Each structure stands twice: as structure tokens, then as C-alpha cells.
Amino acid sequence: MRQPPRYLTFRVYQGVDLSQLNPVQNASPTERRMDIFALTWRLPIIVWQILFFVGPLLFMVAMSFFLVKNYVMQETFVFDNWSKMFSRGYFRDSYFLTLFLATLSTIVASLVAFPASFALAFKVSESTRRWALFLLIIPFFTSYLVRIFAWYVILAESGAINAVLSTIGLRPYTMLNTKFGTIVGYMTLTLPLVVVLQTFSLANVDRNLVQAAHNLGCSPWRTVYTVIIPLAKTGLIVAALFCFILSFGDFVSPYYLGGSKPPTLPILIIDTTKSGQQWPRAAVIAVVMMATLITIAFAAITLAYRKRASR
Amino acid sequence: MRSSSFLSGILRGYTVLMFAFVFAPIAFSVIFSFNSARFPTIPLESFTLHWYQTIWADPDVWEALRNSVIVSLCTSVLATALGFATAYTDYRYNFRFKSAYLALVLLPPTIPLIIMALAMLAWFSKIGASGELWSIIIAHTVLAAPFAMAITRLRLNQMDKDLESAAWNLGASEWRAMREVIIPFCKPALISAAFLTAAVSFDEFAIAWFVSGLNKTVPVLILEIVQGNIDPQVNAIGTLVFMVSITLVVAAQVFFSLRQSKSST
């Protein structure tokens, strides 16, 4: 019989070897919370995030109540910015346009990604899948801005696609400054991530259940709808949520490929901040965006984790 | 299921097309960076290194590159250190409000960059720190630390819980166990995290654009060139940026998978 390793004969609690401690001392774990070692690892990020993450965001919310007079920001508490922004037609148009584009982007990305994710999850070998995911992670961390500029050149009136169209005798097709252009840009941003997340959730679907459906005479299409999609639901919704958040907050695609007429909310933030010097009004837009995203994220997560009605 | 092989063929072809879409812009900028035409289109004109010579001779590009290198190096070190500390805390301790703690750490990448940019700009000018290189570094660290945390946390998951206790029982202090057991074990993940966070910082343009002031980084320079007109030197700068970030991300992944194959033996 193997002896257990010597260290296992000691009880270890929260990293402290109890055998070396006075029993009274470790009787109450709450006393142990203030140890320097633990705080060294726990505190830095708390301080950092409060100073440079929570701080800026809260200050931005506060800033939406400030006033700008003679180009100087005054720390007041008035609702002027809010009432001004909400009474402007362009803000409302911009809001619904952004909501529409982000929703469209989410639907397109989810649909375009699904067959590819399905193929990667079910139709290829383990190592091919690993390679595919390896490749898809690269563009996600690779200069999005330069990729959009490349699309700008490809989609332009005299660009590569139209050059090909004209050699086969077709008339140039306007793709820049249209919603099509914007969506191509959004796909560049979101598609790799959506495929990665969808593939993960599909690959985790229990193969036995898929096989069972098949054995019971379920057609492949019906298996996808009634077995695979419901089982992978959480991951699919999370992928869609990330796509929505990324599209909703992106300014590069609607600006360079969509022509920014009318502007989306992120473009409006830039215009208001950079040329208008109206930081408080930009803060109103940002707070409205945050509120929208929080609502949608909450709804999506509720939907993602909702148990299916029992039959 | 006779049609299934036909169907999988279609699915595979579709997947290849989707990859082509994802990588097309990268391939195009590389190709056009060597093309002599002023407006990049098909058919290609002659091969040239003209755009590379242009950017090589441009002091703005060098300045931006210097700024970018400083920012990503500092961000990488800071974010990896913070990410590691947080991952270790999550691995070892249970405490009240732990889920709030984790949310605080992991949320930044889910906030739209443009909102973070505005918030950072306002906050930094409030505390009198805007327009400095280190304001970009601070903001990028907030953004990149969660990635470092996730990578290190995955590595810690693979560690035998008893390893650390064994070190204590053999008389090592917590600090010494950290230095001689935990950190060596996490080393591949830490290297991987350092590369990935450097890539995140090297490519980030929204926050850098808002808070940088006159200290432009490379993506901010690109943003400003692109706002003017179509300038093929962007393809040359872009190709260099691609090379740097792809190298960083691939290096991160190589170290990340290195640790997996090691642990499985």
C-alpha cells in the first residue's frame, strides 16, 4: 500500500498550515482575512480598477450633469444636457439607427457564422478545429482599423471588387457609404469572435443526444433545430450578445464604410467631444448607450439561462 | 444519410469562404503595400518598395512607433502583473463579494471602447493627467488586465492544489512558495499573457486617440492619415502593424498551447 504523501496528513486551511498554528488563533477565519500576503495579491487590482475604471465611468455619469460655459466645464448639477439631447431629433434618429444596425449586425453575424461553426464543431477533426480556432483568434487581436481601411479600398467605386465587375461587363456597384458597407465592417470586427464562441458551445453539445435523435429517425435539419440549437442556446446567445455590444459601440465601420450619414451614437460622441467640446453632452450619449447595453445584456443573459419549459 | 457527405462538402466550402472573408483585408493590405498604383485597385501595377521608403523616411511614423512600443511594453508588464495577482487571488481565496471582485476585474473589455475613451479623457483631465503617454498606459492596462487574468487563471486550474501546500509543509513561507512553485508553474501563461496584452495595447486606437494629446501611437497616426484621403502608405504601415500584432498573438498562442501539451504529459 502506498503511503499518502506526508503533507497530506496536515490540514491546510486557506493556505495556512494549521498544524503550526495555535488552535485559538485559527479558530476564527475572519481574523485571518487581514494577512499581508493575501492582500498583496488582492488589493492592487481593486485600487487600480476603482481609480481607473469605476472612477472614470462614475465621473462620466456625473459629467452628464455639468455645464460648459465659455469653453470651461463647470461642475454643476443641472439637467440641461439631458433635456437638450432628448429634444434633438438627430439624437433620436441616431439612437434608433445604431440600435437597428447593431441588431442587423447581430442577426447577420449569427446566421453567417452558424454554418461555419457547425462545420467546425461537427464535421472536421479535432486538430482541424484547433487550427481553425487558432486562426480565428488572430484577427480578433489584429488591427481592426487597418482591416477596415483595406475594406474601404476593396469596396470603393474604383476598388478591387468593382474592377472585377467591370471586366466581366457589369456596372460598378456602390458599396461604400451604404448600410452594406457598415455591415461588412461589423462582420470584420465580430465574425471571428462569434464563430469561436459558437463553435465552443456547439462542440460541447452531447454527441449521444445527437446520435439518439438520428437513431429515432429525426432528419438532420430537424436535429439541428430541435436538439442542437436548444442545447447550445446559452453559448449562441452569448455570442450574439458580444456581437451586439461590439457593433453598438463601434465607430470605425459606420464612419469609414457607412459614410456616417446619419451618424451612429459612437460617431456622435466623437463629434460632440472633439469638435463641439461639449463633453457633458457626449457623456449623456454615453450614459444612454450604457443603459441600453445593460438592459440588453440583462435580457440576453436571462434568456440564455432560462430553463426550458418542462413538458 | 446519403446526402450527408455532399452536405458536409458544402459546409466545409462555406467555412473556407468565411475564412477568406476574415483574412481578405489582411491579405489585401499586404499585397497593395507593394503595389505602385496611387489608388490600390485591380489589375495590380508594378512591384515597388516606394511606400515603405516613404514611411521609413517619415519622422512621424518613427515617433509613433516609439510611443507605441513604450505603451505596449509598459501595458504588457503592468497588465500581466495585475492579471496574475488577480488570478492567484481567485484561485486560492474565497471571500465575501468575490463575484463583485471578479466583475470589477473582468468587465472592462465588455464596455464599448468609445465610452471608455470619453470617460478616461474626462477623468484624466480632471486629475490633471491627460495627454501623457502614461495616461494611455493606464487606460490600456485596465483594458488588457482581464485577458492576462483569464490566461493565468486557466493555467492555475491545471495546477495540483497540493503542490503549494506541499511547499508550505516542507517549510517554505507563502512568499517562497509563490516564488519557487506558483510563478515557475505559471511562467508559460505569464509569457503568453505578456504577448497578448502587448497586442491588445498595440492595436487599440479609440482610447489612445482620445487621451493621447500630441503623443500619437501608430494606430492613432493611421486614424489621422485615413481621415485625410486615400494614401497607400497606410497599407505599408498597416502591413507592419499586422506583422507586429500577428507575431504577438501567435507567440501568445504558442506559449499558451505549450503549457497545455506540457501538462498533459
Describe the structure.
The complex is a heterodimer of chains A (311) and B (265). Chain A is mainly α. Chain A has two domains: 6-74, no CATH class; 81-305, MetI-like (MetI-like fold). Chain A has 13 helices and four strands. In chain A, strand 1 (12-13) and strand 2 (16-17) form a beta hairpin. Chain A is globular and about 75 Å long. In chain A, 38% of the residues are buried. Chain B has one domain: Orthogonal Bundle (MetI-like fold), CATH 1.10.3720. In chain B, helix 7 runs antiparallel to helix 8. Chain B is built from eleven helices and no strands. With 265 residues, chain B is mostly helical. Chain B has helices at 4-32, 50-56, 59-92, 98-106, 113-126, 133-157, 161-169, 174-203, 206-211, 218-228, 233-264. The chains are: A mainly alpha (311), B mainly alpha (265). The interface between A and B is large, with 94 and 91 residues.
Give short descriptive properties of this protein:
heterodimer, A: 311 residues, mainly alpha, MetI-like fold, two-stranded antiparallel sheet, 68% helix, disordered N terminus, B: mainly alpha, 11 helices
DSSP helical segment count of chain A: 13
Overall helicity of chain B: over 70%
Summarize the biggest pleated sheet of chain B: none
Instruction: Provide the CATH topology of chain B.
Output: MetI-like fold
**So, CATH architecture of chain B?**
Orthogonal Bundle
Tell me the total number of β-strands of chain A.
4
Count up the domains of chain B.
1
**Helix and strand succession of chain B?**
HHHHHHHHHHH
Pairing-aware structural class of the strands and helices of chain B? mainly alpha
Q: Averaged pLDDT of chain A, please?
A: 86
- Write out the CATH superfamily name of the largest domain in chain A: MetI-like
The residue ranges of chain A in which pLDDT falls below 50 over 5 or more consecutive positions are: 1-10, 22-31
Number of helices of chain B: 11
As a whole number of angstroms, the C-alpha radius of gyration of chain B is 23 Å
Number of strands of chain B: 0
What is the H/E order of chain A? EEHEEHHHHHHHHHHHH
Name given to the CATH homologous superfamily of chain B: MetI-like
Estimate the mean pLDDT confidence of chain B. 89
End-to-end gap of chain B: 39 Å
Q: Give the helix proportion of chain A (percent range).
A: 55-70%
For the sheet with most strands of chain A, the description reads: 2 strands, antiparallel
